[in-house]
Amino acid sequence: MAPHTLLLFLGVDLLLVLTPGPDWLYVAARGLGQGRRAGLLAVAGVCAGYAVHTVLSSAGLAAALRAVPAVLPALRWAGAAYLAVLAVTMLIGLRRTGGRLSPAPAQSTGTVLRQSMLTALLNPKGLLLYLSLVPQFVEPGSGMPVGGQVLALGSLNVLCCAAVYGAVAVTAARFGGSLAGTPTAARRLTAVSAVLLLLVAGATATA
Fold first, then answer.
1. Buried b / exposed e along 150-161 (16+ C-beta atoms within 10 A)
2. What are the pLDDT digits (tens) for 82-124?
3. How far is CA 137 from the centre of its chain?
4. N- to C-terminal Cα distance for the chain?
């Protein structure tokens, strides 16, 4: 691939990643309500999900889904339902504490990574990126196989997501940390993060 093609894709992809959307809200909700560690783990999980999209696309599986119109709507609703379940689970956890002013317990590394990766895998916009944008930058006449080009472009997208979403998660965690000085405030931040996840679910369902 020509270097200018990679740079052009990088510029377009950065503009898309920098535009606030469901991924922004998701990692911000994790950072705001559960701290920097959970926020960065969420970023890692989201990026892992997009890495899977990259590998599938390089193997030609993503393009094959274009022939099945029901796949994208099914992914959209499955992703929205999954995020809604996560949000409701957080709210139920707060309700179970009753009058005790204690924040929700921290989730394990594996749990946050798994939930975040599944969120990315069920995000139809992530799949659409590989179905619509990436093919525009593939050069069939170059010496590099098409699958290798898709892998390179997808890897650039994952790096962009890691950088931008990482900054979002850290910023949200700092803001949340400055507010969570008391158990009451921590509970409220958890509730806010649950509401944000519900907003992400709504945005995913209507995408």
1. bbbbbebbbebb
2. 778 877 877 776 665 554 444 445 678 888 899 899 888 887 7
3. 23
4. 32
Q: Dmax of the chain from CA atoms?
A: 67
For the stretch 19-22, contacts whose Cβ atoms lie closer than 8 Å and that sit 24 or more positions apart, written own/partner, are 21/125, 21/203, 22/123, 22/125, 22/200, 22/203, 22/204, 22/207
| CA–CA dist 14, 11 (Å, integer) | 5
- pLDDT tens digits along 115-148: 899 888 887 777 777 777 887 888 877 788 888 8
- Angle, helix 22-58 to helix 183-205, in steps of 10 degrees: 50
pTM comes to 0.73
